[in-house]
Amino acid sequence: MCLAIPGKLTQWINRDPLFATAEVEFASIRRVCHMACVPEALVGDYVLVHAGVAITRVDPAEAQRLLDDLQSLGTADEWPPEEDPHEIR
Amino acid sequence: MKYVDEFRDPRRAQSLVREIHGRVSRRWTLMEVCGGQTHGLLRYGIAEELADAVELIHGPGCPVCVTSLAAIDLAIELACRAGTIVASFGDMLRVPGSRGSLADARSAGAAVRMVYSPLDAIEIARRNPTEQVVFFAVGFETTAPATAVAVQQAKELDLQNFSLLVSHVRVLPAMESLLQQPDARIDGFLAAGHVCTITGYEPYDKLADQYRVPVVVTGFEPVDLLAGILECVSLLESRSFEVKNCYSRSVCRDGNQAARKLMDEVYEIIDCDWRGLGMLLQGGLRLRPEWRHFDATFRFGGCSLPVIETPECQGGLVLSGRLKPHECPSFGGACTPDRPLGAPMVSSEGACAAYYRYRGAPIDATLNAVSD
Question: What total number of domains does chain A contain?
Answer without folding.
Answer: 1
